[in-house]
Specification:
The complex is a heterodimer of chains A (99) and B (205).
Chain A lengths: L1 E5 L2 H9 L4 E3 L4 H12 L4 E7 H6 L2 H9 L4 E5 L6 H10 L6
Chain B lengths: L8 H64 L1 H10 L5 E9 L2 E9 L11 H4 L2 H79 L1
Antiparallel strand pairs in B: 1-2
The chains are: A alpha/beta (99), B mainly alpha (205).
Chain lengths: 99, 205
């Protein structure tokens, strides 16, 4: 299975340098949404890497679908700390265990 | 609920059986919740460390590619990137943690070396090679973090659902059943007393 990278040209360039061949550069939100939807149904993709800022722009329903997906597994990365998981832990367990 | 119950002995027996079954289910669910929570706590510490490492590696990778672009020029970096023909591959399998299906991600060919890159030793540049190395390290960290994050999310969902089930059994289902049981018992005792009284009156006549 392959690794797919979704984001701007600058975001994907480094991954291309490391040999990742499945690169997607959507130009607007609609294109990003349709790209993510089509990647969810691809059997040959194991991991999808997406820029955190792009991930946050996606509709809530699609984000839930992405986080529930096992194949491919979707991971958002960015330079800033992502607090989504921390917040969901807090709301689910009632305590902040992220320490 | 108590009002819809028929105050009969067979109903009481059924109810007692159901309370016993529900209580054992409740205990099992409680054990499952505790087990999941233990698993979650163990993974969370690893996940926090992996996430911090990932952010740090990503920052380093961004710095190295910015440096390569500024020294070698954006076009040289792009042409080196286009030259890449073989990339990292992953295998995603499923594993089961206490009934929760979680992904297991294994990577192959995640890191590339100068010798294996199409640009070669002479064609490339140290700055471009360094940024390619940084991104290779980043990819191996991504593979690890992707598995851990997906596992944690699924465990968290399951903990939440199990917690809800445990609470529903503890505070709604079992108390309602016990209420119905005491209603039937009281009603049966009342009927027995009425019957005794009726017999006494009948005997006195």
């Amino acid at each position: 299975m392959e690794i797919a990278v979704v984001g701007s040209l600058d975001f994907t360039l480094g991954f291309q340098l490391a040999g990742v061949l499945r690169l997607h550069n959507p130009e607007n939100l609609d294109e990003l949404t349709s790209t993510m939807k089509s990647l969810l149904n691809e059997k040959e993709i194991g991991v999808v890497v997406i820029d955190n800022s792009d991930l946050l722009q996606l509709p809530e329903r699609l984000r839930v679908q992405l986080s529930e997906s096992i194949t491919p597994t979707v991971l958002g990365i960015g330079t800033e700390e992502d607090n989504t998981l921390r917040e969901s832990i807090k709301s689910a367990l009632g305590v902040d265990l992220w320490k | 609920m108590a009002l819809d119950i028929k105050p009969t002995r067979s109903e009481l027996i059924n109810l007692k059986r159901r309370i016993k079954q529900t209580s054992s289910g409740y205990n099992l669910l409680k054990m499952k919740r505790d087990g999941l929570f233990f698993e979650f706590r163990t993974l969370l510490a690893e996940m926090i460390a992996a996430r911090e490492e990932l952010v740090g590696t990503y920052r380093d990778a961004l710095k190295s590619i910015a440096l390569a672009s500024s020294i070698e020029g954006g076009l040289a970096v792009k042409s080196a990137a286009i030259a890449a023909t073989s990339g990292p591959e992953v295998t995603v399998s499923r594993r089961n943690i206490m009934g929760v299906v979680v992904p297991k991600v294994d990577g192959t060919n995640l890191t590339t070396t100068v010798e294996t890159r199409p640009t070669g030793i002479i064609g490339g540049s140290p700055y471009i090679d360094e940024s390619a190395d940084s991104y290779s390290v980043l990819i191996s960290k991504i593979v690890k973090a992707a598995e851990m994050e997906a596992t944690l999310k699924r465990l968290l969902e399951e903990i939440e659902a199990t917690k809800r089930r445990v609470n529903a059994l503890e505070f709604v289902v079992i108390p309602e059943m016990k209420e119905a049981q005491s209603f039937i018992q009281l009603r049966l005792e009342e009927m027995e007393r009425e019957e005794t009284f009726r017999l006494k009156r009948f005997k006195n006549k």
